[in-house]
Amino acid sequence: MQLPPKVTQRAFDRLAEIGAASEGQALRVAVEGGGCSGFQYEIKLDAPASDDLVIAEGEEKVIVDPVSLPFLSGAVIDFTDELIGARFTIDNPNATSSCGCGTSFSM
């Protein structure tokens, strides 16, 4: 069974801080082939498409395209602000390994 990704309150709060909704954009989380482990995440601000899964809280939205959705089943999308930098992160239970950069993984 495919579970939708979960988005943390910190991720929604960061989207509100950067004003994504006021510009008609959402946080797009996608999976593409490539990277050092076989797949890589693409995380960017983008306008929602009609076939996207939309996860919303208030006006803030996170969107996932239908092709990426099976790869992100049950994943947790978060925002971290650490010494090494601030970024959106993905804790993906489907990934069997990942590289040190945190954007590339294998299944």
What does this entry look like structurally?
With 107 residues, the protein is mainly beta. It has one helix and nine strands; from the N terminus they run βαββββββββ. The protein has a single domain, classed as Sandwich (Hypothetical Protein Aq_1857, Chain: A), CATH 2.60.300. The strands form two sheets. It has a six-stranded mixed sheet. A three-stranded mixed sheet has the order 1-6-7. The longest helix is centred in the N-terminal third of the chain and has 10 residues.
Major beta sheet, strand line-up: 4-5-2-3-9-8
The tally of domains stands at 1
CATH class: Mainly Beta
What does the overall shape look like? globular
Cα-atom radius of gyration: 13 Å
Helix fraction by DSSP (H/I, runs of at least 4): under 10%
Number of helices: 1
Largest sheet: 6 strands, mixed
Gap between N and C termini: 17 Å
Q: What would you give as the CATH superfamily?
A: HesB-like domain
β content, as a range?
Answer: 35-45%
Low-confidence stretches: none
Helices and strands, in N-to-C order? Answer: EHEEEEEEEE
What would the CATH topology be? Hypothetical Protein Aq_1857, Chain: A
Corresponding CATH architecture: Sandwich
* DSSP strand count: 9
pLDDT averaged over residues: 86
Class from helix and strand fractions:
mainly beta
